[in-house]
Amino acid sequence: MKNLDDSLTALQAYVSGLRDRVLNQTKNGVDGLMQSHVETQTGMNQMHRLQQASKDAIEEMKKVLADTNSTAKWMRQKDKDICQLKTRIKELEKAAVALTQDDLLEILDVSRDLPLFDFRKVDRADPDLSDSHVALGISTDHKFKEWQAQELSATQILFVETQMATLSTRHVSAVTLVSFHLIASLHDQPEATVVYFFCGQHTSSTDTAQGPKGMMRSLISQLLHVCQVRLDFVSLRLRQQLERLDLKGLCECFSRIVKRLPATTVLFCIVDSINYFERRDWLDETTHIIDILQDLVDDSELEARLLLLMTSPIRTRHISNMFPPEARLSIRGEDSTGTRSHMTERQLAEASRRPRGGRRAANHIYSSLRSQKTAGLMSDDGFDEEIYSDEAWASDR
Q: Both 222 and 367 in a single domain?
């Protein structure tokens, strides 16, 4: 009996222990499930938040895309508006700067009679023939003759420099007389167009065509008086430069006009006694003009034939070095024996005259663009008899 009771007690204790272990295991399992549930719920909440954030991002991207499309459309419209505005501005600028030849002549403000006045002043001056040997050396030199006759193999640029000891007080040297007679002969030949400037007559501070700027104003004016040229190349910038009589603007205008001349044109540009413009306050302007003129002769856009002659009766410090050796003619005025040959003014005139006919290319007929002539260099309507009367010249001298 006692053994049975002990067995029953042991069984009860075993069952009780088993129950406690099962309860503990069950409790631990339930606690684990609860923890897993919590973690699962937390994960689901995070996923929900991520989904909502994704939805919000998608909606934001849709808005940005819509704004981008709207912006692109706006920008296309603005680009179109800007193009239309630029076109309108160009039209307004073109209308604002449209120049006639009379408008440009008014801006340049150079008397139409100025070239003739200079020409006749040289003609009326007492020639100093004591240095006529220099003129003889120029007029008989092969470089001068080739340039004069427009030989295709010759340079189109010629700088003539002599070594005279003194200059005439009226600025009319034997070299100037060579220029004078050459100009006279060119005006007498219909195939040639000539523009010229006597620098020695335009050094006074009271002169209306003083200095390098005055020279360019005069050369442009002479071209406009003898040529009909479209001035549609004049931009607002260039017009403003011309109105200020800016030297670079004047040089650009001259170059553009010369480039508009037809291929049949033979243009002689003669600048006499450039040494007068080598003074310190004009040197930069003078060298700029020389550079521009030399570049223009060789410009590939130039259809006309441009022949440039510059002279100096004395040795220059800077100008001579601006020309290539083949374009320089230096005259000492003495022959191989050291003697000097003298000539009369009539002989000088004959020696300086350009041979009639000049160069004629095959099947080309040179048409004259000049309206001036040697004994008037312009129509009688533009000639002021009072200015050029004998009394006026007598008082001037």
A: yes
Mark whether 159 and 120 lie in a shared domain: yes
Q: Are residues 93 and 110 in the same domain?
A: no
Please count the structural domains in the chain: 2
Q: Model's pTM, two decimal places? A: 0.65
Name the amino acid, one letter, at 323: F
The whole domain housing 323 covers: 101-396
Question: What's the distance, CA 220 to chain centroid?
Answer: 16
> Does one domain contain both 145 and 238?
yes
Q: Return all residues near 265 (Cβ < 8 A) that are at least 6 apart.
A: 193, 303, 304, 305, 366, 367, 369
- Coil/strand/helix, residue 250: helix
As a whole number of angstroms, the distance between CA 214 and CA 108 comes to 9
Helix%, strand%, coil% for the chain, nearest 5: 60, 10, 35
Inter-residue contact 257 to 220 (CB < 8 Å):
yes
| 166 in any annotated domain | yes
- Whole-number Cα distances in Å, 202 to 150, 205, 213, 275, 316: 29, 8, 11, 12, 18
Q: What is the pLDDT of residue 374?
A: 35
Which residues, at least 6 apart from 361, have a Cβ–Cβ distance to it below 8 Å?
Answer: none
Predicted confidence (pLDDT) per residue in 131-146, tens digit: 677 788 888 888 998 8
Does one domain contain both 171 and 129? yes
Tell me the CA distances in angstroms from 354 to 146, 186, 290, one per residue in order: 10, 7, 24
- Bridge-partner residues for 160, per DSSP? 311, 329
Q: Nearest Cα to 306, choosing from 316, 324, 292, 326?
A: 292
Residue closest to 341 by CA, chosen among 64, 134, 70, 56: 134
Cα–Cα distance between 308 and 322 in angstroms, integer? 14
Is the domain of 320 the same as that of 339?
yes
Render pLDDT for 295-309 as a digit per residue (tens, 0 to 9). 999 999 999 999 999
Backbone angles phi, psi at 227, to 5 degrees: -130, 145
Q: In angstroms, rounded to a whole number, what is the distance separating the alpha carbons of residues 397 and 144?
A: 32
Query: What tokens does 60 get?
Result: 């934001």
From the list 139, 141, 188, 131, the residue with the least C-alpha distance to 163 is: 131
Enter the tokens of residue 300.
Answer: 């590939």
Other beta carbons within 10 Å of 219: 27
Residues 172 and 238 in one domain: yes
